[in-house]
Amino acid sequence: MALSAPQHLTGTTLKVSAIPPGNSRGGQVVFARERPPVEKLYRLYVERNITKERAEELGVQRWRRWESGKSEHDFGWQVDEQVFITKGCLQVKPLDCPDSAYFYAGDLVRFPKWFEATLFIEKDYEHRYRFLAYGEGEV
């Protein structure tokens, strides 16, 4: 038996599951949309593992440096911030979301103004950062 999505759901990523006959739903087919990744939900723009040339083009070596050991803290962005991770891993869990995003050394991430999250750092971590004016440095 071939299953097809209702017309208004075509073109979206779906999880399709058939409930066996005899179940309280009587063999209905259930469609559920997958939750978009945290990056998409909160407009976190990411370039994974950028090239040395891209880093030089952006001038990341001139950006301010921030480092930390193992830590966990809440943080809120008052301005757009672009970050280039030079060492370690950063787990970002938005305050009102059960999911997290993970960023690693070599990733370039833009955090939007007014975004709030809990940051988890497991080991030594370092990044370069700069603040951006509205519309500047689109990724």
UniProtKB/TrEMBL annotation:
Coiled coil: none annotated. InterPro entries: RmlC-like_jellyroll (IPR014710), UGlyAH_Cupin_dom (IPR008579). Gene3D superfamilies: Jelly Rolls. It comes from the Eukaryota. Pfam families: Cupin_3. Residues 56-129 form the (S)-ureidoglycine aminohydrolase cupin domain. PANTHER family: OS04G0445200 PROTEIN (PTHR33271), PLASTID TRANSCRIPTIONALLY ACTIVE 18 (PTHR33271:SF7). This is (S)-ureidoglycine aminohydrolase cupin domain-containing protein. It comes from Adiantum capillus-veneris.
